[in-house]
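hey can u check if this looks right to u? its 340 residues, i copy pasted from the old doc so theres a chance i mangled smth
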Amino acid sequence: MIIKELEVQTHVDPLRRAGYEAERQMAHYLKRAYGEDPYKFVLNNLRVERGGEVAQVDHLIVLRFGLLVVESKSVAGQLSVNEQGEWTRWWNRQGRGMPSPVLQARRQLDLLCALLNDHTAELLDRGLFGLKQRTFTPMRRDVLVAVSDGGRITRNTEVPEVVKADQVPDRVQQGIREMQGRLTAFTFSDAEMTRICAFLRNQHVAGSEAQPDIASVSEPLHVQPPSSVSRPSAPRGLTGVVSPPHSLPVAAPALLEPAQTEPAQIPNCRQCQSSRLSMQYGKYGYYFKCATCDANTPAKPVCPTCAEPARLSKSGAQFTAACAGGHQWRYWTNGSSPHP
């Protein structure tokens, strides 16, 4: 299933335009292979942030046993990899060195996994009759570098991660067969896969490279209101998907409502229950620092309208919360007393 389509982009620079075309080609192959597959979820051009770092993932496939990152590379001529693992791009018999796209994809996957690890308790079930929290540690993590159809690859050393774009679905099936032969292989449950896809879709932050194709828009765009048909609730309070087992998570409509002027809940220090708090940002996101006992309390705003978890944004001393359902409100202001 396609959870996140590739945004339409326009580029003046020929290299960036060629890169986008390679991504579009790969997105086409993935949609043809998994567009109606209820067990493989695809997110194209996923951009997430963690601790000031950004992971730009061309294509992410969420599988039953783990994650696969596909890095698209536009090649009009030839790519070669020598015995030292050094990459060269060739055009008109002239070679130019380039960073390893395999290492690039692995770095993106590492940051993505670190973000998931930060939210383990929200995304994964507890095992052993609820006594032990499952973790992402044993899941399989793979990367593939997909070279566009017109490119050629010369390998002086084995680089199993590099394939032609149309070969990616076959490599995915090969990995699935390998994992099916392992009785102790780690697997996600249906609910876990749904929560992970919803979380990643909601964490996406659009970059400047995602521009609407103005030439293709001939009339104003209108946002359709949500259907009045009753749907099942998303599991574990995560927004962005509404899906029964084995079905496609559906992105929540981007309908913004005016910000509320009163906070939905008054936070207190979890150690001493004091309200003398200030909002700060750390390794795991925003948190409250207590002026009374110096303890830390995670900031976890919940939408007062739909009771869903929300994300925080900062403007000066003021912090605004917004949920995926489109509701937003003033959550906290440093230096001011809490509302009664």
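The chain has five helices and 18 strands.
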